[in-house]
Amino acid sequence: MIFYSTKTASIKASAEEAIFNSLPADNGLYMPESIPTLSPDFISNIENKTFNEIAVEITHTLFGDEITRSEVETLINQAYDFDAPVRQINEKDYVLELFHGPSMAFKDFGARFMAAIMSHYLARSKRKIQILVATSGDTGGAVAQGFYKIPGISVTILYPSGKVSEIQERQLTTPGHNVTAIEVDGTFDDCQKLVKEAFLDPELNARFNLASANSINIARLIPQSFYYFSAYAQLKKLGKPIVFAVPSGNFGNLSAGLLAYRMGLPVERFVAATNLNNAVPRYLESGTYEPLPSIETISNAMDVGNPSNFVRFQRFFNDDWKSATEKVSGFYFDNEQTKTAMREVSETSQYVMCPHTAVAYQGLQAYREENTSDYTGVFLATAHPAKFIDLVEETLEKQIEIPERLKSLLSIEKVATSMNSSFSEFKKLLLSTLN
To answer: Does 107 qualify as catalytic in the annotation?
Structure first.
């Protein structure tokens, strides 16, 4: 499979090059030169496939001869010993639960795939790499868990101080071994900017084999398409069109849904649901993209003012705004609306949502108010509510159970290096600490 840069189409890379380079030299993003479609027979019989069987077919279709089918099967089975179940919430709506992996967040799907495929390539080349990743919450924990003790890979995670939940922070600051955490006095956008600058710095690139595990890396995007197909497989028997409501921050999740759609997944519509960091909903309404500094909200993993994946989002529609509006609707919500939704679903369906999931639920309900045709609504649950225990319990005015794998983290002391958002300081730190 060949990838091109969204800034300079003549810059090309193989799948292996795109995965390890993370960003093209021109600071664009890698996109598939062409997107293959799955066979109609596969889609027709998808309800008989397991999650891993679906993942193998998608991966093999995309990567072609670069990795054999038997190697793909090994990678997928290494990555996934968990599923993405769909649960009914009310008469017409379902929730796609993406928090059954090791870090209990949807980022596990991308991180585990990346760890498996990078390990595969590294074993062949006998190289070592340094992964740099910025997190607004769940990416850090998923990457820490996914890459923990993977041979040949060291991980440095940047996160904004005071802007992730306590459990999220413990997940990315307590593993140790090959995982290092840096606490940045700034926002997620600041962390993301530091990572991007590092990839463009000649000295750092000459000294280290840098790679990213953020959704700027195409290997994070590809596996997130798996669960859209899986949800369709579980709901196909209903015989209705499907609308996916996606809680959106950096727009990797929605871009993965668009990749699935382009590969042949039947999707009636996508709903891009954001908090007050609403650059994309405003774009869908006006046709003008105006990113703003990020705003702190209770759905902190979505506090992204200038989504990196927006250029991919546009490219899936050949940079045509009208085409985008024909397939994607955008809505945004404030903190009080999000808390109201959490209480509403808890009371009517006895289902507990994290604030990000609640944003997706609100997006689906807002779309229903405008479109009353007969379809199945699916909103994505991106994290276990216990990862935001204080907020959820305060909002619902009741205690919720904390899974043991999360509860045990609270007794472990965090280990993180603090720094400001200056790239010169970050570069100095990397040069003094990375091997």
So the answer is: yes
CATH numeric code, 73-106+221-404: 3.40.50.1100
Distance CA 122, CA 117 (A): 9
Average pLDDT, the chain: 93
Is 256's pLDDT higher than 70? Answer: yes
d(CA 231, CA 386): 23
**pTM assigned to the model:** 0.90
Residue 260 has pLDDT above 90, yes or no: yes
Domain boundaries defined on the chain: 73-106+221-404
Name the phi and psi angles at 246, rounded to 5.
-120, 120
Angle at 98 between CA 380 and CA 308, to 5 degrees: 70
Distance (Å, whole) CA 166 – CA 411: 11
Cβ-contact 251, 310 below 8 angstroms: yes
State yes or no: pLDDT of 161 exceeds 80: yes
Six-digit token string for 78 = 């290494």
Q: Give me Rg for the CA atoms of the chain.
A: 20
What are the φ and ψ backbone dihedral angles of 181, each rounded to 5 degrees? Answer: -110, 140
Query: Of 107, 196, 339, 387, which one is the catalytic site residue?
Result: 107
Query: To which residue do tokens 């598939």 refer?
Result: 32
Residues 6 or more apart from 161 whose CB is under 8 A from it?
183, 184, 185, 186, 418
Neighbours of 55 (CB within 10 A): 27
**Between residues 284 and 22, which one has the greater pLDDT?**
284
